[in-house]
Amino acid sequence: MLIGELADKANISVDTIRYYEREGLIKPVSVRDSGYREFDESSADTLLFVVRAKDLGFSLKEICTLLRLKNDPDTTCGEVKALAEKKITDVILKIKSLQAIEKDLTALLRACTDTAASVDECPIVDSLDKKEKEI
């Protein structure tokens, strides 16, 4: 199948497939004399694996590792589990960071009581303008 068919099958853009190809995540099985790259069902399976891993928040570097592990017959499930455990830890830390941002923004919004005031008197701008973090 050509790249357009592959893109349709995976429901992603041709440009995304080209990017994944440049990053070494997917390879064509052959290249025609015309330069058109051909992919097979294995390519489609790999691409869908990449898309699902990306949807779970894995970075391209992590996906490369997952693909390497997947294709190594000596890999154990425990090795893959360790990578997923690290990812969930990263996700939990990111959630905590986002919750802290939400708290800070909420405090700034509460401080902004006079919406008709000049921007020079805006507590949000004042907070952002400070040299040190006060929140």
Automatic annotation (TrEMBL):
Keywords annotated in UniProt: DNA-binding, Transcription, Transcription regulation
Superkingdom of this protein's organism: Bacteria
GO molecular function list: DNA binding; DNA-binding transcription factor activity
Pfam family, any one: MerR
InterPro entries per the UniProt record, alphabetical: DNA-bd_dom_put_sf, MerR-type_HTH_dom, MerR_fam, Tscrpt_reg_MerR_DNA-bd
Domain HTH merR-type: 1-69
Protein's name according to its UniProt entry: DNA-binding transcriptional regulator, MerR family
